[in-house]
Each structure stands twice: as structure tokens, then as C-alpha cells.
Amino acid sequence: MRYDEQKYQRLMREVRCEEIKAVEVVRLGRREEGRRRPLLVKLDNEQRKYEVLKNAKNLKNTKEEWAKRVQITKDLTIREREETRKALEALREKRERGEQGWGRRGSGNTGSCKQPDNRGESNMSETEGVAVEAGGGVMGCQVTQQPQTKKRRASENGINTAEGEEEKNGMAEKAKIDESYFASYSDIELHRTMIEDSVRTNAYQQAIFQNLDVSGKVVADVGCGTGILSMFCAQAGAKRVYAIEASKIAVHARQLVHANGLQDIITVLQGKAEEVELPEKVDVVVSEWMGYMLLYETMLPSVLYVRDKWLKPGGKMYPERAVLYMALGEAQWITKYEEGTYDFWVSLNHVYDLDMSLLADHAVSRYKDVVHVHMVAQEDVLSFPTAVCDLDLTTISVDALHKISCPFSLSSMGSRQLNSVVLWFDVFFPGGHKLSTSPDNEDTHWQNTVLPLATAPLRQDTQVKGQLTITQDLSNHRFLNVDLNYRVDGGEEITRTYKMDDNCNDNDF
């Protein structure tokens, strides 16, 4: 149930505040079916209700249907409040009893910004410290911790324990982050999201099938997930495939390999990429390591570790090159969200007779400090792109990924309102095959990455110049910090700082 926002906002402005009544309306999110967001609609009489209904999408124009939906919303609100009350009471009781661990988050929830696919590290199941073999191979992986890490463990390089308690605490914290991270990749629904992204899956299949690099060769699949890329390699004639997966999904990957009769070719190894020992060097390294904005989740270091340790000289990387692009944008949903969230906090005064308007400006400003993952329409890209980084995956080092900084100069196309910077990436495979997440192409589960800006008018060929810097977050090596300095037409320099964390995937406007 989605509304025509422009008509809706116009109706709200027409109603005088002293005459309004508040009515709750339920609106389904754009992308998650069944997700409900309360919205306060200002109405002065029954006729006004009918007008809002008439201008809403996918909503029947009947007062009876309206009444039913309002009642359903009230019932849901009552039930949710009761559940919240019970949960708080349980926490209080637990705290009073002095139980350890009260109020901690479950280790399996890493938030909504999960980027798809297999990851190459260690996520242990009940068979802790044992290799999960899909037949054929004898090699196992020695895993010292239970869990799940998609990429490289923060403690992988080893820190001298004599350096003090601070280093130990840092290692323990990073291990917890990795454990929670890999737990998220045990979710089969997450792998479904990635596999049903036909742009992604077909690009890998075509690159593997249409090149001769795999046939008769030994392959390592880093972060194999369900094992689909490993099975593509087997179908393409690979001699042997070592499928490395850190999360518990490795158990299902082994079963799938047997179900497809490929156990003599594919060996599934459950463990972190940095800890698994292979019986031989490999000719090809395959991995789908890309995160939002290419680098989110920091899995690439694990792939490079396998490259440096196990890839033969002259071996192939799939993909072999990755390019991150940026361009100017006018994201229409940013303006809609700002208007909606501002009206929400202001309108609470008419519902509960409480002034909550102080939070309106805070909510809008906070929204602009977060990186957003959202599709941007082709017509809302306001400039030609420029490359932020161009990574040669056959030679780049892990140290070069810690900080990526790029000066940029972008020229606007036409007269529009600048309110964002849009980022996307392309990866290239041997043989010229390309996987693109550009707004010009079909949507992917990676979508586009959007950095909100203060709105500024642009004319034809307006110059926007500045510097974009991406660094790993010190508190969580899976997260990223983005610093942006820019000037519009040589004006005053503007500095923006963004955090790319579990809150980035809020594409439900």
C-alpha cells in the first residue's frame, strides 16, 4: 500500500491545524512486503478521508475498508506495546537477579546492511575444529573459535600477547564482531537473495563457462556460501575445487555438492580463509567478495590472502579488476523522507497534545549523516561518473585498502537540484566479462550507495570539486568511514562525514 506522496503532502497542507483530527494509516514499505510504517494523516472531516483514499495507490476507495485498516493498525499497536512491556519486565527481573549477560544483543544479528554471499573465513558448527569435506579431499581446516567470520579475522596476523591487556581486549572484540558477522551468513534466506540476483549469478556463470581458464584446472572458491560458484567451476571442467566457507552454511554446501554428484571434484572446507590449509597450489581463485560500495564488510583481504599463499604464479583471479565510481545525484526519495519525518514529529502535538517538534530537525539532520543503500534512477544521475579507485586484484596489497582517497571534479548536466553523491561499482573477469551495478543497468541486490548532501541548485556545467576518502572504522573493521570535502562552483568548502554500518540499508521509503 504506497501513497502518491505529492498529492498526500498537498492534502496535508490544505488542512488548518485547529480543525484536524489524527487518523493512523498503514503504508507498506517499498521493498519489504508486509513491513508497516505508521503515518499520521491530518483530516478535518469524513470527506477529507475519502479524498486521501481516492488519491492513494492500491487502496480501495471505501470508508468500510478504511475503518478496517485503522482498526487493524490499532490492534497491532496494542499488541506490540504489550510485547515490548513484557520484554522490558523480563530484562528488569533478570537485572535484579544479577544474571550475567542481561541486555546483551544476540550474536547472530548484525543488522540490516548485510551484503550477500559466501564469505571466506571460519564459522564453526557443532563439529568445531573439523573440516567439512564434500568428498574427494583429505584436507581439513583447523579452527580455534566457534564461529563465523566472513573475511579476515582481525587477530589473523597475530598480536604478541606480551604487548598487554589492551591488545588482548582488542582481539577479543574483533573476534566477537567476526563471530556475529559469520552467523549472519548462516541464514539461507540471505543466500537466496544473492542467488536470485540474476545479474550477479549469470555474470559469474558466463565468465566461468566461456573462458578456458577453469577447464582442467585446480580452483579455490573463497567464501563459497551454498557452493554455487564451485559447482559452476565443476560443470565447466575444473579438475578439483576447494570450496572455503567460514559460516555454518558450509554444511549445506557439502550436502548440495553430494546431491549434484560433484563430490569427487569439490571439497568443502569449513574455516576462515586465513586458517584453511590446502593440499596444493591452485590455478584459479574465484570469489564473490564485493559489499555495498564495493568495500563494505572488508572481505577482500581474505581473498588476497588466499591469492598470495595458494595461487600459482600466473594464475587467474575471478574477478581480476574492480572499479568504484561516483557521480552527482538528485535522489527524489531524500526530499520525500525529510518532509515525511518532519511532519511526523510536528503532528504528534495534535494526537497526544505533546510538543515533540524539537526532534524534527534532529531526525532530518541525522538522516543526512548516514550512508544509504538505495536504487537511484538513471535520470537522477546528474553528471558523468569518475573513478574513485581502480583495483588490480592480481597485484594490489591489503595495506592499500586501509585508506582510499581520491580527488574529483564533476560537471553537472542540466539545471537540477544537487542533494547527493551516488556510488556504484563494476568488476571485470578474464576474457572481458563485466558485472555492473550502475544505475544505467539492471538493478542488483547491491543497489547504489548514496551520500546525502545539503541541497544546492546546479546549472549546466556547474563544477563540483573535492576529495572523497574511505577508511576502515576503528571500532569495527567490517564498517567504513567516508569523508567528503567539496565546493560547488568554487564556493565555500563543505565537509561531510558518514558512517557505513548496519544502519545503511534503509531502502524502505
Structural notes for this entry:
- This protein is of the alpha+beta class and 509 residues long.
- It folds into 3 domains: 5-77, no CATH class; 161-318, Vaccinia Virus protein VP39 (Rossmann fold, 3-Layer(aba) Sandwich), CATH 3.40.50.150; 322-500, Hnrnp arginine n-methyltransferase1, CATH 2.70.160.11.
- It is built from 11 helices and 17 strands.
- Strands 8, 9, 10, 12, 13 and 14 form a 6-stranded antiparallel β-sheet that branches. Strands 5-4-3-6-7 form a 5-stranded parallel β-sheet, with helices on both faces.
- Helix 6 (198-209) runs parallel beside helix 7 (228-235) and helix 10 (332-352) runs antiparallel to helix 11.
- The N and C termini lie close together (12 Å).
- Residues 15-46, 55-63 and 99-162 have low confidence and may be disordered.
Report a brief summary of the structure.
The protein is α+β, with helices and mostly antiparallel strands and 509 residues long. It has helices at residues 5-14, 46-54, 63-96, 165-184, 188-195, 198-209, 228-235, 249-259, 300-310, 332-352, 358-367; strands at 21-28, 36-43, 218-222, 240-245, 266-270, 282-286, 311-318, 321-329, 372-374, 386-392, 403-411, 416-428, 434-436, 448-458, 463-472, 480-488, 494-500.
Descriptive labels:
30% helix; 509 residues; five-stranded parallel β-sheet; 25% strand; six-stranded antiparallel β-sheet; 3 domains; alpha+beta; Rossmann fold; Hnrnp arginine n-methyltransferase1
